[in-house]
UniProtKB/TrEMBL annotation:
Provenance organism: Streptomyces actuosus
Family: Belongs to the metallo-dependent hydrolases superfamily. Hydantoinase/dihydropyrimidinase family.
One GO location term (cellular component): cytosol
List of residues that carry N6-carboxylysine: 155
Short name of any one Pfam family annotated for the protein: Amidohydro_1
Cofactor: Zn(2+)
GN (gene name): hydA
Keyword flag Hydrolase: yes
Recorded GO MF terms: hydrolase activity, acting on carbon-nitrogen (but not peptide) bonds, in cyclic amides; metal ion binding
Protein name: Dihydropyrimidinase
Length: 466
């Protein structure tokens, strides 16, 4: 039996902050005891990690990543190997990525393909959601089987007609099915049919620059789709999780529905909290680096998102990590913003940016852990194995130095992408050591993990329902 003790740190979970030593046995948390007490002093171990002056936090749970996603004629530039290594560098120890059903094919084929990409390559544990692009009688039956085998959430798109898009009837049917089988529908809420009209009209006017991506994908069309998704879920009697919420008007829709007592939940992402349409308007096509959907919004939306995170109208911050290199990938959209592959890199930056938000007074330290670790784990059936530090949990633990300063940059990051969305941003706080099931993936800022350590992690159904 291998034993590790982490001594002297401040253990921060979603519910507590305690000066405690943590005993790890065979990859799991075995016990916590107040530092300096006889109980803690009595522990012997093969390895002792000194966390004096540091935080001891659960590994991050990022429930929205797209490694190797095919999009717009190219593929997201991080593989499961490079992307999960970068995640570990940033203090994330679990990802839930999106397997994709292509139109005309089965869910099973899509899921098998994603298993093949990930198997044996990941540095940290991973699970899958399923993108349902083709709702039909067969797909609906397959949803039940997937829930039974641990793929308990399904993403649908009200955007991207002709690619991932589902119409309201398909959405309602999938929601009705999830109401029966316990699955959770995750909605990309933007009115894609209307947006495509505005795209066509903008291009006809010669408006080809990346900033027009933000103008045509209107906040009102995010809010409208959010409202429609909420009401369809209400009719179906199903819970709903709205992904990548960026518009204050969409937050208002979620807040109203929650006030009515509906089981609707919202996720936002660091890019909506820290970046804005100012970035999309950067000259010389630099704005392409910030093209994602839902799009970045004017700065005034940020305060509403932060408030939503404090008041629990928004519950989760995940990254929607979907990197495309500027050179050769984002550049596909020179002269036509609608051809810029959609997505931003960020899997490595989330824990640090949210720690900076603690220092900036947006959220508390415990709320940081709640929105980045505990709630995503609960929402997607991974708790308490993931998302907390408690006896029985997997020893996915980060030793976090809250005083170290860093400057975010593509020169120093580990994601396989040639730019940083946060280039030059100074933040205080940095990951020092990362354990995944007790094994050191990062040791005092050296990568000590290995591809294949990370394993597929089946999930139970949502544990967050009221
Ligand atoms: O722009 C984005 N978000 N790309 C990834 C696909 C999605 O819609 O989440
Ligand atoms: Zn097929
Ligand atoms: Zn989406
Ligand atoms: Zn996404």
């Amino acid at each position: 039996m291998s034993r590790t003790v982490i001594r002297g740190g401040l253990v921060v979970t979603a519910s507590d902050e305690t000066h405690a030593d943590v005993l790890i046995e065979d990859g799991r948390i075995a016990a916590l005891a107040a530092s300096g007490t006889p109980a803690a002093e009595a522990w012997t171990a093969d390895r002792v990690i000194d966390a004096t002056g540091k935080y001891v936090i659960p590994g991050g749970v990022d429930v929205h990543t797209h490694m190797e996603l095919p999009f717009g004629g190219t593929f997201a530039s991080d593989t499961f190997e490079t992307g999960t290594r970068a995640a570990a560098w940033g203090g994330t120890t679990t990802i839930v990525d999106f397997a994709v059903q292509s139109v005309g094919h089965s869910l099973r084929e899509g899921l098998d393909a994603w298993h093949a990409k990930a198997e044996g390559t990941c540095s940290i544990d991973y699970g899958f959601h399923m993108i349902v692009s083709d709702v039909n009688q067969e797909t609906l039956k397959e949803m039940d089987l997937l829930v039974e085998e641990g793929v308990t959430s399904f993403k649908q798109f009200m955007a991207y007609p002709g690619v991932f898009y589902s119409d309201d009837g398909q959405i309602l049917r999938a929601m009705q099915r999830s109401a029966e089988n316990g699955g959770l529908i995750m909605m990309h809420a933007e009115n894609g049919i209307a947006i495509d009209v505005l795209v066509e009209q903008a291009l006809a006017r010669g408006e080809t620059d990346p900033r027009y991506h933000g103008e045509v994908r209107k906040a009102l069309l995010e809010a409208e789709a959010t409202h429609r998704a909420i009401r369809l879920a209400q009719v179906a009697g199903a819970p709903l999780y709205v992904v990548h919420v960026s518009a204050m008007e969409a937050v208002a829709e979620l807040a109203r529905a929650r006030d009515e007592g509906l089981n609707v939940f919202g996720e936002t992402c660091p890019q909506y909290l820290f970046l804005s349409t100012d970035n999309l308007a950067e000259p010389d096509f630099e704005g392409a680096k910030y093209v994602c959907s839902t799009p970045l919004r004017p700065k005034e939306h940020q305060a509403v998102l932060w408030r939503g995170l404090r008041t629990n109208d928004l519950q989760v911050v995940s990254t929607d990590h979907c990197p495309f290199c500027f050179t050769g990938q984002k550049e596909l959209g020179r002269g036509d913003f609608s051809k810029i592959p959609n997505g931003l890199p960020g899997v490595e930056n989330r824990m640090d940016l949210l720690h900076q938000a603690v220092l900036d007074g947006h959220i508390s330290r415990r709320r940081w852990i709640e929105i980045a670790c505990a709630t995503p784990a609960r929402m997607f059936g991974l708790y308490p194995k993931k998302g907390t530090i408690a006896p029985g949990a997997d020893a996915d633990v980060v030793i976090y130095d809250p005083h170290a300063e860093q400057v975010m940059s593509a020169v120093t990051h580990h994601m396989n992408v040639d730019y940083s969305a946060y280039e030059g941003k100074r933040v205080t706080g940095r990951v020092e050591t990362v354990l995944s099931r007790g094994e050191a993936v990062i040791t005092e800022r050296e990568y000590t993990g290995r591809p294949g350590h990370g394993v597929y992690t089946p999930r139970s159904t949502c544990q967050y329902l009221s």
